[in-house]
Amino acid sequence: MTFGNVCNADEGSPIGVFDSGVGGLTVVKEIMHQMPNEKIVYFGDTARVPYGSKSKDTVTRFSQQIVRFLETFDVKTIVVACNTASAYALEELEKESSIPIIGVVKPGAKAASDVTRNGKIGVIATEATISSGIYNEYITKLNKDVTIYGKACPLFVPLVEEGLLEDPVTDEIARRYLTELIDLDIDTLILGCTHYPLIRSTLGKIMGKEVSLVNPAYETALELKELLQDRNMLNDRHPALGENQYQFFVSDKAEKFKTFANSIIKYGILSAKTVNIEQY
User: Fold this and answer.
1) pTM above the 0.85 mark?
2) For residue 136, which phi and psi values (nearest 5 degrees)?
3) Neighbouring C-beta atoms of residue 142, cutoff 10 Å
C-alpha cells in the first residue's frame, strides 16, 4: 500500500511526524506556527497507544513500521514526536534511514538545562521514558551541577486521549503525581511526553508560578527549523491552492482523532485516514 509519490525529497517535500496517539499534535501545532509554508504528514498510532508501558523492542518495531510508512511520502525529515519512541527507538531509526530524524528529548533537555536557576529539574513522563534515564543522560552532559528528579505519570496519556483536559479527575491525579516534586523544591519541570502540554494549564496551576514548564514540542520545532535552514531545505513557498498541505493518518478511530485534532490545532476541518500500519 503506497500513499505517496515516488520522487526525491526537496525543500517542497513534506515533514513526517509521528506519535503513539494525539500527543504529537502539540509538535505539529508548533511546526505549523513556526514554519507555515511546510507540508506535514502525521501518523498517530491510536490503535496501539500508549507506548509508555511497552518494551523497548515493541516500541522500536512500531516506530520502524511508521517510518517506513512516512517514507512513502518522500518526506525530507521525520520528527519522532513521542518521548518514549525517542528514548527507545531513535538511535536505531537514525541508523536505518537516509533522511534526518530528530526526537523530542534532546531539545527539551537543553531548554531545561538553560532555564534552571537552582539546579533542581523535574521530569514527568511515561514509565518507559523515566526508566530509560535518557533525560538524565542528556541534561548531565550539558550541566553536571544539576539534580534531576523523574516521576512517571502513566495516567496522563489516557486522560488526554479521552479528551479530559480540564476535568476534576485530571486535576486530582495531577496533584497526586506532582506533590513530591513540589516538596523537592524543583524550579524547572520538563513535560516529558508530547501529550502533557495539552494539560499545561493544570500542571502550571499546581506547580505554581515559580516553576518554569519546559515544553519539548516547542523546542523541537525550533530545532527542526534550524536543521532545515542548515540543509537549505526550508520551504520558502506557501503551498498553492488545492495542494494537500496537511495530511493525517491513524491506525484506528479516525473520526475520534479528527474531532480531537480540530479542537487542538483549530485549523478547520481536518480529515484523517486509517492505515493498517502492520503492513509496513
Assistant:
1) yes
2) -55, -45
3) 13
User: Known catalytic residues?
Assistant: 82, 193
The C-alpha cell at 179 is 506533590
> Domains (ranges, CATH) in the chain?
15-103+219-279 (3.40.50.1860), 105-216 (3.40.50.1860)
pLDDT, tens digit (0-9, with 9 covering 90-100), for 33-62: 999 999 999 999 999 999 989 999 999 999
